[in-house]
Amino acid sequence: MQEAYVQKYIDLFISCLDEELNIAQNGVINAVKWFNYLTTDIIGELAFGESFGGLEKNEMHPWLENLFGSLKI
Taking the chain, what is the end-to-end CA distance rounded to the nearest angstrom? Predict the structure, then answer.
């Protein structure tokens, strides 16, 4: 039942990667950043009914940025 949500974000993820690779000078991108956006957007959609907007905005939601920063410490 949730496949449509997951597929929507996978399609957006692939589109963002393609765009990022076209912009990249040497063909190198930060894949970890994009996978973090993908997973947090999917989790947000399935758990809270709305994504955190990472893939659309190309930036981590401030709440998640704080969470990841705290986990590193």
Answer: 37
The closest alpha carbon to 21, from 12, 11, 31, belongs to 31
pTM of the complete model: 0.86
Say whether 2 sits in a helix, a strand or coil.
Answer: coil
Dihedral sign of CA atoms 57, 28, 22, 11 in order:
negative
For the stretch 7-37, pLDDT in tens is: 999 999 999 999 999 998 888 999 999 999 9
